Amino acid sequence: MSALFNLQSLLTVVLLVICTCSYLKSFFPKVFDKSRTGILKTCWKCARIGERKSPWVAAACSMMAFTILFLK
User: Fold this and answer.
1) Secondary structure letter of residue 53 according to DSSP
2) How much is the pLDDT for 1?
3) CA-to-CA separations, 51 to 23, 24, 70, 72, in angstroms, rounded
4) Mean pLDDT over residues 29-35, rounded?
5) Residue 1, Cβ neighbours under 10 Å: how many?
6) Residue 46 in contact with residue 21, Cβ under 8 Å?
7) Residue 63 pLDDT more than 70?
8) Is the pLDDT of residue 37 over 90?
9) Does position 3 have pLDDT exceeding 80, yes or no?
10) Which of these, 20, 53, 47, lies nearest to 33 by C-alpha position?
11) Among residues 4, 6, 22, 49, which is most buried (max CB within 10 A)?
12) Angle, CA of 45, 55 and 34, to the nearest 5°
């Protein structure tokens, strides 16, 4: 089943994209800040969400991990 049709898979993909973009921005800040067009704009927005809402993203990742490990 595709991640688009399964809500849990879609949320997992979104959380992983946010966490990955935030992590990569810490190593390559000029790449994300230099050009805000196209796919880099989406990556910049995800990194910004990960930076500003980090406690909420961390809580969502913890709940996702618990759900995947113990409820599946």
Assistant:
1) T
2) 57
3) 9, 12, 28, 30
4) 79
5) 6
6) yes
7) yes
8) no
9) no
10) 47
11) 22
12) 25
Both tokens of 42, joined, read 């989406």
Which residue type is seen at 55?
Answer: P
Higher pLDDT, 37 or 67: 67
Contacts by 42-48, CB closer than 8 A, 24 or more apart? 46/17, 46/18, 46/20, 46/21, 46/22, 47/18, 47/21, 47/22
Q: What is the DSSP letter of 37?
A: S
Phi first, then psi: what are they for 44, rounded to 5°? -65, -40
Q: pTM here? A: 0.80
Alpha helix (H) residue ranges in 1-72: 7-27, 29-34, 39-52, 54-70
